[in-house]
Design goal:
Layout lengths: L15 H9 L14 E6 L9 H8 L2 H4 L2 E6 L7 H6 L5 E4 L1 H9 L5 E7 L4 E6 L7 H5 L4 E3 L5 H10 L5 E3 L6 H5 L3 E6 L3 H7 L4 E5 L8 E6 L1 H6 L1 H20 L1 H11 L5 H15 L13 H13 L22
Parallel strand pairs: 1-2, 1-3, 6-7, 6-8
Antiparallel strand pairs: 3-10, 4-10, 5-8, 5-9
Helix pairs in contact: 1-11, 2-11, 2-12, 5-14, 11-12, 12-13
């Protein structure tokens, strides 16, 4: 399908549906997106197939993408895959990134726009053995604990400024569980729905301390790049709508979809995936009456921008309204 650039519509105060309508009203010589003709679309994941992407796999399994004319292919990610850079450069039309990556890359001139936010609450946390007497971020950061964490993370800077952390022993986060499982006083960063249920299944009871109280960006954010959005607003809206419905179906019945995810990632057991799906539900579904899955607000993006500037992750940030396009609320 031949594409050409269209005049940009400011993203902040419009939904994807409104943007698609505005773009469709422009003078254009090419045919609009035709959902009856399947179009191959690649989506770069920022981790391996796990329940944190469950809604997208549900949309794929139930034919929600196909119904909108999209033949979606998911590309497995990992810690060394530069998802934000790949989507900003146009190497892939969609990628899963963190909200802070969106603002950081935009501050450095990158062309990236968020269109859907999976996790409404930050799913990153610190994981401790259940017998550890520490129960709060302040207690942890004022202790002499050994903590496995990536030191460049914004919330580490925030905690250092808030509670000093002078006595902490920071060690590199390896991404594995080997050290943690055999070291009762070890603490490490974790994804709230991944390592904790895995430890429980291995007979090692743990507790978690969320970092959301000090740093609460959206996570597992679906992003595209400005050029692709300009030229394919209706396609982007279709992808987001299918993804939102996929998440509603997945959270209602994860047992239906997890076997297919396990087949793609046998390193994680079906039992662990079931536990993960139950944990992540509260981080993805907004409280009743407060919104819908995938939503984003200007206030949340502005709060994140201020923190990133305060932490000196970036020197300044442009209008956050240009960093995201809010998905449309699902119809009743």
């Amino acid at each position: 399908m031949k594409r050409r650039a269209l005049s940009w519509v400011s993203a902040g105060s419009v939904t994807l549906a409104a943007l698609a309508l505005a773009v469709a009203s422009c003078d254009r010589t090419e045919a609009p997106f035709d959902p009856t003709k399947p179009l191959v679309i690649q989506v770069q994941l920022n981790w391996v197939p796990e329940p944190e992407f469950g809604g997208m796999y549900a949309a794929l399994q139930d034919g929600l993408y196909a119904a909108k004319g999209l033949a979606v292919e998911f590309i497995k990610g990992g810690g060394d895959v530069p998802c934000a850079q790949l989507v900003a450069s146009g190497r892939v039309p969609f990628a899963l990134v963190s909200a802070e990556e969106v603002l950081t890359l935009r501050a450095r001139g990158g062309s990236i726009v968020a269109v859907f936010a999976t996790f409404q609450e930050n799913p990153m946390a610190f994981m401790l053995h259940e017998a550890n007497p520490i129960n709060t971020l302040e207690e942890l950061w004022r202790s002499d604990s050994t903590v496995g964490v990536n030191v460049g993370l914004p919330y580490v800077t925030i905690l250092n400024e808030k509670y000093s952390g002078a006595d902490l022993k920071i060690v590199p986060y390896t991404g594995g569980l080997a050290t943690f499982l055999v070291t009762p006083d070890h603490v490490q960063q974790c994804f709230i729905a991944s390592e904790p249920p895995e430890c429980k299944l291995r007979g090692v009871p743990v507790k978690i301390i969320s970092v959301a109280e000090v740093f609460n960006p959206y996570a597992a954010v679906v992003a595209t790049n400005e050029k692709f959005l300009k030229e394919n607003a209706a396609l982007v809206a279709a992808f987001v709508q299918a993804t939102g419905e996929g998440w509603r179906r997945y959270l209602a019945n994860p047992q239906k979809y997890n076997p297919a995810i396990v087949a793609l990632n046998p390193a994680m057991s079906l039992e662990a995936m079931q536990a993960s799906a139950e944990i992540e539900r509260a981080f993805i579904e907004p409280a009743p009456g407060t919104g819908f899955i995938g939503q984003m607000t200007t206030a949340r993006w502005e709060a994140l921008a201020k923190q990133l500037v305060a932490c000196k992750v970036i020197e300044a940030v442009g209008p956050v309204e240009q960093a995201f396009v809010a998905p449309e609320a699902p119809k009743p």
